[in-house]
Amino acid sequence: MKEAEDPHAVLGLSPGATRGEVDRAFRALARRHHPDAPGGDRAAYARVRHAYEALAEPRARTEPGTRPTAPPPSSPSRRGVSIPVRVRNARPRRGADRTAALRVALPLAVYGGTAALALGDGRTATVAVPPGTEHRARFRLPGRGGPGAHGGAPGDLLVTVLVADHPVYRRAGRDLRATLPLGYAEAVLGTEAAITGLDGRVLRVPVPPGTAQGATITLPGQGVPGRGGTGALVLDVTIDVPAGPLSADQRAALEHLGAVLPAPRKEPRR
């Protein structure tokens, strides 16, 4: 710095600047002109340094045993010189995955549809349930989990489907099963039974004459749909025996039937 150069002017200050203003001006100019900084200027940095020392020296002389030093920068120093530090932003971090249980009715799991899932934080997710979904099947909903950090992507939501029991139908792989109760005359003579299917449609079930207790009647294509085709509806036949007292006409009819029908063999069966 030239002998006549005003240190206040070098630092961009007025002659009456305080020590704090001097320190702040030096820090700003030192970071800008430091040779290690992008676009730094060694000569300009030296002028700023000399101007600061010129202004700090008179103030330091009033304190015995002290020497003027540059204000401590917020970054590390090299040979007593302030070095600008490039602050790296934190790396984006993906959010954590979360889990949830979705309870659905058997018809929805069999035929498919959508269900609303409460996430517990005031939000609701719509889950698409494909046809043939099994109990405890798991689905992944991308981006519906925990929030990411530092601009990272949110996590996923892992949904476990819990299928509720049905009062009439139960699932057996690709088949649906239910119990078909028949009267004694229906089982002996045969009939066409009308039942309500799992999907609410009325199904006609042909019952052949002589259907016995424990027989099964299979309706193909009325079961669980899937990639390998649709399963069957399997009906397990039970014969209802009147539990209450019989009228005289009912008793007479049964006695006549017992007399004309061949008696079954009285031997145990496996």
UniProtKB/TrEMBL annotation:
CDD domains according to UniProt: DnaJ, DnaJ_C
TM annotation in the entry: none
Residue ranges, annotated region (Disordered): 1-20, 56-96
GO-annotated biological processes: protein refolding
Pfam families the record matches: DnaJ, DnaJ_C
Keyword Nucleotide-binding: no
Keywords tagged on the record: Chaperone
Organism of origin: Nocardiopsis aegyptia
GO molecular function, a single term: unfolded protein binding
Keyword Transcription: no
PROSITE patterns assigned: DNAJ_2
Gene Ontology CC annotation, any one: cytoplasm
The protein's name: DnaJ-class molecular chaperone
Annotated ranges, domain J: 6-60
